[in-house]
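Troubleshooting: if your tokenizer reports a length mismatch, compare against these two reference records.
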Amino acid sequence: MDVIEDIENQTNELRALGINVMDQFSLEQNVAAEVDEAVKKQNRKQKINILNREVKESKLEIMKIKSKENDFEQRLAGMRQRVTDPRKIFAIEKSIKENQKQLKTLTIRKNYIENKLEAAIEDESVLDTVDLNLEEGEVVDEDETEEEKCSRGIFRDKMIKEGKMTPFGTLLIPSVSFKEETEKPLQNAFSFHSFSSSGKNSLTPCTSSTLTLSSENEYHPPR
């Protein structure tokens, strides 16, 4: 007790001289708080730069997707005006749907980031809820469990390894192939039959029934 009183007396004497005295614990707490605040400010500054760059890249990507979609629409309109393999039309329609899905995803993410950046002008702490590791188009789900976050990360890594997504989260739309399939020879359309007795060939159309040659169908050279 005497030691505590002694410290308090010394503290009071120093304060009387205009010297501010703090105990070790309070000093460490204040220093830690200042360091944390400095780290937060630095992280927020870096996050703002990253998000601004992502918004810029998203706008460029959206323009590319819209241009690609317009090209698909024109090609599809041309196909519908002429006789075209239905599989080609289906492939174009599928690409348009995938394009629209990616466009929606990018737009949601871009709007989300822009809203956060706008709110950060008044209060930078709103940036603390922005997850830079989210895929494009995703927003923070505060109710998401750690297991769900892990599953999402595994799915993202799998998509990148399979070449379906870039490391930046951009989905890759498979290009539409218009390579003509090799047509099978029309070997079943006609059948050639040799006859040793006449030395001639008879050309007979195939039917669904078994091909049989009666004596009436045999070829007889003119006498």
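Reference record two:
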Amino acid sequence: MSELTPKNGWNVGRRWLHVTVSVLTADQVTPELTAADRCDACGAQAYVRVLLPTGELLFCAHHGRKHAEALGQVATHIHDESDRLLSEPKSDQR
């Protein structure tokens, strides 16, 4: 999995979190976000997981972008799956 932190390339001005990549070891991997994961701000489906020294916060893409600058100052890792919103749906194969 790829993660970004403020120290290794998180740049709010360029395509939000997709600027550079750091690699986590197996014991640091965060699970993939599912439809059951909800935004802590509004309850929509979460696409961004923010790891803090004291826990984690989940955000939809909108609230993740809205709070990106502040989160970048306190987060230990930011896991962004918002690119899934742009991917083509898989065709139904029956």
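Descriptive notes for reference record two:
- Residues 8-23 have pLDDT under 50 and may be disordered.
- The chain has one domain: 2-85.
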